[in-house]
Specification:
α4 packs antiparallel against α5, α5 runs antiparallel to α6 and α6 runs antiparallel to α7. The chain is an all-alpha fold. The longest helix is centred in the middle third of the chain and has 22 residues.
């Protein structure tokens, strides 16, 4: 009887282990199982910043379809950042993001839909200013986002010169 119970236990453990292996490496590396949560900074650099820059380039090129696509991606990336980090420094990050981006996003959407480059440029500058206002409010004023130039490789100001 004891041998039968031991055999059943070994079989159960073996089946569970094989099912775990069959689940693949994705299960072993998912955020839920590893406990990894990218920082706000990681999310900004990896998801927000590239979309912000691609949105600018699309608008400057008059590629309105891609600009609309990137605006949607940027909006979603901000939403996921707020969802991942609902509170920072005792401030509701989703509420802060919404309060500063809502109007620039509406204005950008309107400019994109009407294919209005002048309105796009203004709305994009307003969004960029909104980003910087958040950085200032969260004591990260050293992180200054700028409207990219055609010659820049990034939308971050990193030359060390003081702000105007």
């Amino acid at each position: 009887m004891v041998a039968a119970i031991a055999t059943a236990a070994v079989l159960t453990i073996g089946i569970a282990a094989s099912r775990s292996l069959a689940a693949g490496s994705e299960a072993a590396h998912s955020p839920q199982t590893s406990g990894y949560l990218p920082s706000i900074s990681d999310l900004m650099i990896e998801t927000i910043q590239p979309r912000h820059e691609r949105l600018w380039r699309a608008g400057q090129d008059g590629n309105w379809e891609f600009a609309a696509y990137e605006l949607g991606n940027l909006h979603g990336a901000f939403g996921r950042t707020g969802q991942a980090h609902p509170v920072t420094q005792n401030i509701s990050l989703p509420e802060m993001i919404a309060s500063v981006t809502e109007q620039p996003f509406k204005d950008l959407d309107s400019a994109i839909q009407s294919k209005d480059g002048t309105a796009f440029t203004k709305a994009y500058a307003d969004l960029t200013d909104a980003c910087n206002s958040c950085h200032q409010a969260l004591n990260h004023g050293a992180v200054e986002i700028v409207v990219p130039s055609r010659t820049s490789a990034s939308d971050m100001k990193i030359d060390g010169a003081p702000r105007n």
